[in-house]
Write a structure and sequence with these properties.
Distance between the termini: 88 Å
Structural class: mainly beta
Helix content: 10-25%
Low-confidence stretches: 1-25, 256-269
Largest sheet: 8 strands, antiparallel
Number of helices: 3
Radius of gyration: 22 Å
Order of helices and strands: EEEEEEEEHEEEEEEEHEEH
Number of strands: 17
Mean pLDDT: 81
């Protein structure tokens, strides 16, 4: 049987119980939607609002051999392993490598080819999910990564959704910083950045997830995660979090545009005309 025909719909209900980790039971923390900040752009290693996305991922794992390992990065459910060259501490464990998963997340210990977002709580490995959904890049743009000293930026750039749909698309980005990264004031160790978010439901599922999980059932999730319309909540928003996964209140982002010379000239002429009118009246 063709793997691509075996995707089924699924529904997931998270427990409302929030109990202490020390008790040995699951713990879920909620990030309020109000923690999101309005943003007209994404962050990359070149600074705000640049197009330096780096190289596309080439997947070496996943459930569909027909869509794995293509040099152009087009893929359905694959993932790519990556040595970071720096340490990242996540849920009390320290890692120096990870997996970039096509379906809107990165993970530690194992790659994740799952396409139905059981949520960070139900992930099979420690996971960071800016937008865990059934991403399918076979007919759209692809996933890129840019690795520098103590920082990784992963960009899902104008990506489509299963089954090979290219309209509408989503564009979102993850910034992951090493333990020794000198974090600027009002920024954080992990950043989620979103531009146009055109889809949420796919041919396999009706919702997507945003948040973190330790692979053992404990999670930190956005309030609207795993609810219909998450894409609309995230569009043109961003969020910084510290190493404890607590939201950081950022400094205002720089403006994305300045008046062009013609605009400045017209403004000056308007002021000049106003002064002439005032003198005539005097």
């Amino acid at each position: 049987m063709d793997y691509r025909t075996t995707k089924f719909r699924s529904a997931v209900t998270l427990s409302a119980s929030c109990l202490l980790l020390a008790s040995g039971v699951l713990h879920a923390s909620i990030i309020p939607d109000s923690a999101l900040n309005s943003s007209p752009g994404v962050y990359t290693t070149g600074g705000y609002y640049t197009n330096d996305l780096g190289a596309n991922i080439v997947t070496t794992g996943g459930g569909s051999s027909a869509n794995v390992g293509q040099a152009d990065g087009r893929n359905d459910d694959g993932f790519m392993s990556l040595d970071l060259g720096f340490d990242v501490t996540f849920f009390g464990e320290t890692y120096s490598s990870l997996f970039i998963n096509n379906n809107g997340n990165i993970s530690f210990e194992n790659g994740i080819s799952a396409y139905i977002p059981t949520g960070p709580t139900g992930a099979s490995a420690p996971i960071i999910s800016p937008f865990f959904g059934d991403v399918d890049t076979r007919a759209s743009d692809v996933v890129y990564y840019n690795l520098t000293n103590d920082q990784l930026v992963v960009t899902w750039n104008n990506v489509g959704w299963y089954n090979a749909h290219s309209d509408p698309t989503n564009s979102f980005q993850l910034v992951l910083r090493g333990d020794d990264y000198a974090v600027d004031a009002n920024e954080g160790a992990i950043g989620f950045f979103y531009q146009t978010m055109g889809w949420d439901a796919t041919d396999t599922n009706d919702f997507s997830a945003m948040g973190f999980g330790d692979g053992a059932g404990n999670s930190v999730e956005l309030a609207s995660s795993l609810t219909a319309g998450l894409n609309s909540v995230l569009e043109n928003q961003y969020l910084w979090l510290d190493q404890q996964l607590a939201p950081v209140t950022p400094a205002p982002l720089p403006p994305t545009s300045v008046p062009v010379p013609a605009t400045i000239f017209l403004m000056a002429m308007g002021l000049f005309g106003l002064r002439l009118t005032q003198r005539k009246q005097q």
